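Example (one chain per record):
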Amino acid sequence: MRRSCSCSSSATNGLRVGHHPERAVRRPVRPVPVSGTDVFLCRLVDVPDGGSRGFDPARTGQDTVVVVRRGERLYAWRDACPHHGGTPMAWRKDAYLNAARDRIVCAAHGAQFDIATGICTLGPCLGQRLQKVALDVRDNEIYLKET
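Predicted structure:
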């Protein structure tokens, strides 16, 4: 009989993740599901604590979602700076954080965003915010929730 961890949960931004990432099972990459279902992004262990990762859930060739992990919490945002027409923020693949790893940075404009709230704290879009993306964690896997 398989038991699930009581510490796993489903939520929106600030999602608490399970305490047992070491139990994650390697699974093959999944195809993008049809509309109306959640989209598999990656395994929980694929987003390191203190790290960020970009995703292309629609398979367009460009990352449109950024996920940041801070301890047991995940924060997900559209990869689009509010300053200028939704400009992608990473200067290279998965490079979304400043050197201190405490802010999301738009490489095009230098804007800095609070990881937990998405609010711009420095730069040309001061006070504006990133668009939240809802996630779900199931069986140590991260899914983009279909809205």
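Caption: The CA atoms of residues 64 and 79 lie 5 Å apart.
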